[in-house]
Amino acid sequence: MASLSGTKIKDTFGLLLKMATSTVSASEQVVQDGEGNNTALKLSTDTVESTGDFKCTGTMTTSTTDVQALMLSSTGVFVKRNLSTNPIGTTSVTANSPLGATGSTIGVLPASSLVQLTSQQTATIDKFLIWDESSSSYKYIDAVNLADYVINSGATAIPALFIAKPQATTAIGTAATFAAFAEIANQPATGATDPATSCVALGGVLSAVSLVDAVGVRDNIRLSTQGMYRLECTTEIIVAAGTPNTTVQIYLNDGAGSAVLIEETQNNATVGKHALTLVYYFYADSGVPYDIGLRVSSTTAATLGLQTSFSVTKLGDVV
Q1: Range name among 5-9, 97-101, 220-224, 279-283 with the lowest pLDDT average
Q2: Which H or E run includes 209?
Q3: Which pTM does this prediction carry?
Q4: Longest Cα–Cα distance in the chain
Q5: 3-state secondary structure 53-75
Q6: Phi and psi at residue 151, in whole multiples of 5°?
């Protein structure tokens, strides 16, 4: 009905809205129709209340910049909240370490801002956050189980080890001769080489150990980072005739000076193949790099065989 004009009150009073009991006052009253049916609306002189649902069937304007939000208090009253200064759930965003909050951005703090835990302070029950790929979820692992994994896992048990093999059999005589080492297997710069007859690197040792040229081609092993190294040389000396005295040396040749670190001599070697083994622990200090060579000599002609090997294990630095 567009208008009540010209209609009789007896025919239209049921369509009119009225207060339930009296005129509008400070107390909320239900709004009824003319026949006394309650609506979902209550009114007072300063309050509008609904006892039913609020609906909006029109298209609402979308905003990405407005920060004012309409919220419901604990007593059911609509209140306004500024989400820029008072976000949901708190008066401000607070991120507990190791998380940090800057404005609306939450991120992980740099490790340098945290308190460091040393190996001596770490307890077996201390825990590390870890991503479990099999379940696609974050979990934790404690220190004792992490240590067991590092020690026993086949993927992590390979030591930082470099093994050098001779490039070829080498004739040796009375003058000390440097052994020339083969190329490093599987290195793009050297092409395809056979690990069985070439130098090999295991456990990421190439960042600390490499081959360099001193007297000849690839005749020195360079230690490039500070730390303790285990040097082990097993030489194959082949004697074809006579009974020479053969000497093997692990030789320091670092540019600033040179010295025999350790040597072994076999007197009156008989015809055939002989093995001499040397082991030396060398600490490369802050003066790195250091170049280490293998030198051999014999009082009469002999040969350095291909079964010779020179291994360098990086044990780590002093803690």
Answers
A1: 5-9
A2: strand 209-212
A3: 0.55
A4: 143
A5: CCCCCCCCCCCCCCCEEEEECCC
A6: -75, -40
Lowest-confidence pick of 2-6, 73-77, 249-253: 2-6
Distance between CA atoms of residues 82 and 80, nearest Å: 7
Chain-centroid distance of CA 306 in Å reads 41
DSSP state of 268: S
Report, in this order, helix, strand and coil percent for the chain, each rounded to 5.
Answer: 5, 40, 50
The pLDDT mean for the chain works out to: 87
Q: Which residue has the higher pLDDT, 137 or 95?
A: 137
Q: Six-digit token pair at 221? A: 């092993």
Radius of gyration of the chain (CA): 43
The DSSP 8-state label assigned to residue 228 in this structure reads E
**What percent of the chain lies above the pLDDT cut of 90?**
44
How far, in Å, CA of 66 to CA of 105, rounded? Answer: 18
Q: Which residues contact 55 (CB under 8 A, 6 or more apart)?
A: none
Give residue 305's Cα distance to chain centre.
44
**Euclidean distance between the first and final Cα of the chain, in Å?**
93
User: Is the distance from CB of 218 to CB of 211 less than 8 angstroms?
Assistant: yes
Check residues 91 and 213 and name the one with the higher pLDDT. Answer: 213
- Is 233 exposed, middle or buried (CB count within 10 Å of its CB: 0-12, 13-18, 19+)? buried
**Among 161, 169, 253, 143, which residue's Cα sits nearest to residue 209?**
161
Q: Give the helix/strand (H/E) hosting 100.
A: strand 99-102
